[in-house]
Fold:
Amino acid sequence: MTDAPRSLGQRKADTLARLVSPVLDAWVSTDGPNLVPLTLAWFQDRLVAATDRTTPTAKSLITTGRARVGLGPTRDVVMIDAVLDRWLPVTEAPEIGDAYVAQNDWDPRTAGPSYIFLLLHPTRIQAWREANEIPGRTLMRTGTWLT
Structure:
């Protein structure tokens, strides 16, 4: 038997706790069905990804300006639709780099000159655990948290 569905407020709190948790690993899609694993950080209401500028993921995200991010196991899912806010070399963003390193287990500023930060602005966030939470899964719509 499944637990009663969480309230919207509890789902938002749980989602925000996950976003600031250590080593925020995610699956990221930028161009349809392809998924790549990336470690993210949560900084000033943005998801921050770090990757080499030459990767297909970085190129696609810069071109399309859109990403879909999946967090968690199948029975505690957070799905985030996001738009690219901006991107910049890891060496040009000390406060972003410090925040990324504080949350994660590696420092992309040591990975080489072609590494960049991609800042993603969430536009829709959904979270659910079991089928009974699917009807109320949307927590954010058009970049605004629902109340």
Notes: The chain has one domain: 8-129. The chain has a mean pLDDT of 95. The domain at 8-129 is CATH 2.30.110.10 (Pnp Oxidase; Chain A).
